[in-house]
Amino acid sequence: MKKWPGRKGVLSLILLTVTPLLLLVVAFTWESTGDSPLNLLIPHQQSWGGKSNVSNTSAFSGLGDLAVGGTDIHVVWKEDVGTNENIYFKNKAKEDITWSGAVDLTQTTAGKCLNPAVAVVDNGTSDHIHVVWEDKATGYSDILYRKSLNGGSTWDNSLGSAPDSITSDAYNAGAPDIAITSTIPHVVWHGDPDGIGPESSKIYYSKNPAGDGTSWITDTVSTSSNENEFPAIAIGGSNRIHVTWHDFSAQVIQHRRSTDGGSTWLGVTDLTSGDNSTHPDIAAKGDDVYVVWNTDLGGNQYQVRCRRSTDGGSTWQPSRLIATVTTALISGYPTPRVSVDISDTVHVAWHALGTTDNQEIWHSQSKDSGVHWSSPVNVSNNPEAQSQLASIGTDSEGDAHVAWQEEVSGLWWDIFHSRTGVAGAGGGIYLPIIMKNSY
Fewer CB atoms inside 10 Å of the end CB: C or N, the chain? Predict the structure, then answer.
């Protein structure tokens, strides 16, 4: 890289920010001390709108997940049904106001279903939807799977029969995540195979090459004997599969990748260094891989951080701070989630305190591959209720979508959705007026 001569200069840019209600003049200042070329970043905040109640029931609905295929939004969640906890599904087209009818994917009369995850492939005609979740019907937790190949109109095995089982061993398997390559689902989860307890849990990976939901090939991804938990999976370019998770004992975020579609795995990489970092998530696009997590600073304060690889996970750039936040005692970790859109903008959502003692859902984005991040924007925008556990995705038009659970009353919670790109939701148009510099 060419070094610029050492200098101390100031560059000022005055901008007009035009919103539907207000005309503002904003000044940005840049100061350099040399060694690097001028990098002027003009923050752009996406506007959020169209907030809607997805589950809309008088029961507890939570632990939601979201996936986007083309411009169709698909949401799954856990809902209390009597003494059971079932997994439900709804979807809608981006511009539609109403959601489809709720579909019970579990069809169980006795069980405790938790932690659903959904992935979608847009095949140009209709979305192929794949869902996994954790089920405790047998006393142990198993990972179950169901798919729809026509946008959710019908589901495999018919909904009157049991879902496919990925695990059926006498140990607890939980916290699954899923990603898709063409017709092949790839699933990760944490499990305790030795029956000792969570302190010996491992990260497992399984794929279904036949795409039939029944013939699964399973491997162990984690290599340490520590407590490994909260895995996330993403598919990058050239059939590379990326998995990240939290090594609880070592307090580090780890990454491992496969370059042959999950048949073999390369070595484990530590992305943090024992700094109380937990709850990672991962997104990949081509050779770019992004991992986000929260780092515990103590006193319910956390950093939300991101680290990027530009060569498919071979090497990693230094981590970047997205935000420093405070959470409520009831939920702790901000649990950030990440997605990359068609223009390579990186989107991250998490929960943290707002202007009251209640938590809100927040969003930040980076337009320069995770180097600089916009100021967090309040997505849930309800200071009278608790909002938490965000899930994020982006559509084929570049808009971001977030789903989360929000307290409706003291008796129940619902799953909500909001997105960018809603007409009349606000935002800004930035017009340069005056530029001057001095050295």
Answer: N
